[in-house]
Design goal:
Radius of gyration: 17 Å
Strand content: 5-15%
Number of helices: 9
Shape: globular
Length: 274
């Protein structure tokens, strides 16, 4: 791995536990200034203590609930006020719902928390961000994305189907961001099966992980940290990575026409189509 030189500002969403927290600790230990974004103030404070204890760095904290798009808009404004430049935006926050849930904005929970919210945040910060790293998943194989109906998973709801659809959107969004924003680098990755608080929130996932191989949050965060650090000329812009190697996602997550349709539908959904 060839580290980029100099101290950088890295914003990590979903940073109060799991992969996000592990990545924040690793990035802070290499000397980066890390900014933690999370939903729960108490867990954010605990995460900040862990980062400081491991690295000596005192991270900045911002609270936002990605199930509320107004929270995302407020977060973007706060970040714009605080920082003239964000070297890396790690879109890591995620959610899985066992039952069909609609957000206050009227969208299925997984598609909003995992795709629409980071899509909105990235768009609102795009002129200040140098690199975007998106936590996707091999679960995109379960996705059945329909840009004309982002709430389709709410009918005949299946948790992994809804989650997989949002992860399919992550991969497509990353590739389309690289095409639309030539001055911004964008990468997505599959962290592997990771035992985190995210899994514990879902009895279904937690049960399955008893019988499936899993890795630590620190191992799951390795590719995120690597993509944040690696010289961009050595990476494939818009690429999808597994264990620090480029991989081709399934065809339905590698369709540029579908990615363009998703971008247009997402922009309309979050009020950016104008």
């Amino acid at each position: 791995m060839e580290d980029l030189t100099g101290r950088r500002l890295v914003v990590v969403t979903g940073a109060s536990s799991g992969i996000g927290l592990a990545a924040a600790v690793q990035l802070a230990c290499r000397g980066d200034q890390v900014v933690l974004v999370g939903r729960d103030p108490a867990r954010l404070q605990a995460a900040a203590v862990r980062v400081r204890e491991n690295s000596g760095e005192r991270p900045e904290l911002f609270r936002a609930d990605f199930a509320i798009l107004d929270d995302v808009r407020r977060l973007a404004e706060q970040l714009r006020t605080a920082y003239d430049r964000i070297d890396v935006l790690a879109n890591n926050a995620g959610a899985i719902a066992l039952q069909p849930l609609s957000t206050v904005d009227g969208f299925e929970m997984s598609i909003q928390a995992n795709h629409l919210a980071p899509f909105l945040l990235t768009n609102l910060l795009a002129d200040r961000v140098g690199r975007v790293v998106v936590t996707a998943s091999g679960a995109h194989r379960f996705g059945a994305l329909d840009p004309d109906d982002l709430n389709k998973p709410l009918r005949d709801y299946r948790p992994m189907g809804a989650y997989g659809t949002s992860k399919q959107a992550n991969v497509l969004f990353t590739a389309e961001a690289a095409r639309r924003w030539p001055n911004l680098s964008a990468y997505s990755f599959h962290p592997g099966m990771v035992r985190t608080r995210f899994a514990n929130d879902s009895r279904l996932v937690a049960f399955g992980m008893r019988f499936m191989p899993f890795r630590s949050p620190e191992k799951g965060a390795e590719t995120l940290v690597w993509l944040a650090n690696q010289e961009h000329s050595r990476l494939i812009n818009g690429g999808y990575y597994i264990d620090r190697r480029p991989r081709r996602p399934l065809r339905k997550a590698a369709d540029p026409q579908l990615a363009a349709r998703l971008w247009a539908a997402s922009a309309k959904a979050v009020g950016l189509d104008d």
